[in-house]
Write a structure and sequence with these properties.
The complex is a heterodimer of chains A (about 110) and B (about 110). By secondary structure, chain A is an all-beta fold. Chain A has no helices and 10 strands. In chain A, the strands form 2 sheets. In chain A, strands 1, 3, 4, 8, 9 and 10 form a 6-stranded mixed β-sheet that branches. A 4-stranded antiparallel β-sheet of chain A has the order 2-7-6-5, with no helix packed on it. The relative contact order of chain A is 0.34. In chain B, the strands form 2 sheets. In chain B, strands 2, 4, 5, 6, 9, 10 and 11 form a 7-stranded mixed β-sheet that branches. Chain B has a 4-stranded antiparallel β-sheet with strand order 1-3-8-7, with no helix packed on it. In chain B, strand 7 (about 65-70) and strand 8 form a beta hairpin. The chains are: A mainly beta (about 110), B mainly beta (about 110). The interface between A and B is medium-sized, with 21 and 25 residues.
Chain lengths: ~110, ~110
């Protein structure tokens, strides 16, 4: 079962912090991914969590709680170029190779 | 740098035509995927392949078929295009070495008239 829910849209101010939440159904879980997609472009990989806890990568961090079926992407020191869609995806199958994506969260960063 | 290329950025076809979308990756990846992306529906997996000549159905395979004759190339085929197949088609690939990151091609925006 891979019903993935994330907010449709969010707006945040340049320089601020924003948290994008994602919930998923836990059966068959094999990793949680976040991708960034700018309008008209292909998705690009941001993070992968397979164990509980926080993974930090520069201004971006991703958190996972497997027992709660919950993840979030945290973006700090927002920049205008962070305006994009953020896609949460659940991995399944051997080696997490098969992904089921949520519908994406469109983040608008305003001055 | 991993590079995934798709044969066309934009394609316009007529209902009933047979359509081929080509995807090539240059990093010797074993796994390749075809998705379509529609507003409000997100990315949905059509087919994927773990190896040459192998294919697996994704979530929405109806109306599509695929071909993987060579490791670097994965083709998506619309046997008889219909208007509801108007969409953005994205190809992706991953290495079979435990690194699950999928690398995406630039996409093909297909319009079926």
């Amino acid at each position: 079962g891979q019903n993935i829910d994330q907010p449709t849209e969010m707006t945040a101010t340049e320089g601020a912090i924003v948290q994008i939440n994602c919930t998923y159904q836990t059966s068959g879980f094999n990793g949680l991914f976040w991708y960034q997609q700018h309008a008209g472009e292909a998705p690009t990989f941001l993070s992968y969590n397979v164990l509980d806890g926080l993974e930090e990568k520069g201004r971006f961090s991703s958190f996972l709680s497997r027992s709660k079926g919950y993840s979030y992407l945290l973006l700090k020191e927002l920049q205008m170029k962070d305006s994009a869609s953020y896609l949460c995806a659940e991995g399944s199958g051997a080696g997490s190779y098969q992904l089921t994506f949520g519908k994406g969260t469109k983040l608008s960063v305003i001055p | 740098d991993v590079k995934v290329t798709q044969s066309s950025r934009y394609l316009v076809k007529r209902t009933g035509e047979k359509v081929f979308l080509e995807c090539v990756q240059d990093m010797d990846h074993e796994n390749m995927f075809w998705y379509r992306q529609d507003p409000g529906l997100g990315l949905r997996l059509i087919y994927f392949s773990y190896d040459v000549k192998m294919k697996e159905k994704g979530d929405i395979p109806e109306g599509y078929s695929v071909s993987r004759e060579k490791k670097e190339r994965f083709s998506l085929i619309l046997e008889s295009a219909s208007t509801n197949q108007t969409s953005m088609y994205l190809c992706a690939s991953t290495k079979d070495d435990g690194d699950p990151e999928q690398f995406f091609g630039p996409g093909t925006r297909l319009t079926v008239l």
